[in-house]
Amino acid sequence: MPQSPNAPLSPIRPGSSLYYALQSTPEALRPALQAWVHWWHEVSAIPLTVNDPGVAQTKLAWWAQEVRNSFEGKPTHPLTKPLAQPVPAPGQWPPPELWLAQVDGMQALVQQTRWLDEPSQRKHALATTGAACEAAAHLLGARSPEALSAARELGWGLRQAHHLSRLGQDARLGWLHTPVSILQQHDVKAHELLRPQPGQAPVQWPALLTHLHAQARQSLAAPWRSIDQLPAADRRALRPLAVLAALQMALIDEIAAQGERVLHERLMLTPLRKWWIATRVRWGWYSAPER
Length: 291
Description:
By secondary structure, the protein is mainly α. The protein has one domain: Farnesyl Diphosphate Synthase (Orthogonal Bundle). The protein contains 14 helices and no strands. Helix 2 (30-44) packs antiparallel against helix 6 (118-140) and helix 11 packs antiparallel against helix 13 (239-258). It starts with 16 loop residues before the first helix and ends in a 9-residue tail after the last helix.
């Protein structure tokens, strides 16, 4: 299995989207959120950085047991030892099923690098990135079913935006996350994305890009609108997730405007632009689009 730079050693890098989302969080809650993000990235990296599937599965099985042990008061790894400490109110540690959902989801990625259709991809995204966002909602102090549901649904949009932003970069590493059914719908062959010709794009690429952009945009906008409509306490709690939604929407809008460039290079927003978007969301100047 090819290696990928998907999971940097320090996932919350200055200037990253996660960095600006964290800056929108009450300072007392940041250590717990940082601990969760570091654990999540550590587990997420395994299918992408461990070449032997058997070794990857063994590592993930170890993490599943470590999570269970940690919730019994017996953590042994530095990334799970924070579970022995309470989260400042109103936050709380995510329930164990959200941690284990991430481990199970990474076990699935060890077995496959392609998705046959969108429903199977969505199911996996909700069980991993969606669970991660729901876990963040617990840490941020959100409690209502509506808030937790909006957080989980946002995970689907964040995953789609992430895949679009890394489409060319991941394809060069042998990973193609666009479902086969969508490629067939737009008459794009997998090898045209996995091995694109320099300076060229598949004939049907513009239609495929339009589809992927519109799909990801809607999947970000709908839960972001749900967050905006929550009672004030939950809306404030989930503001960091609204920041992430705004940043990813701006990114995929930029990608759509750049056409085929995403097939050949990684496109990113500047830190200054990210800061300004995050600031406007925090101040209530930037809300979810209606459609």
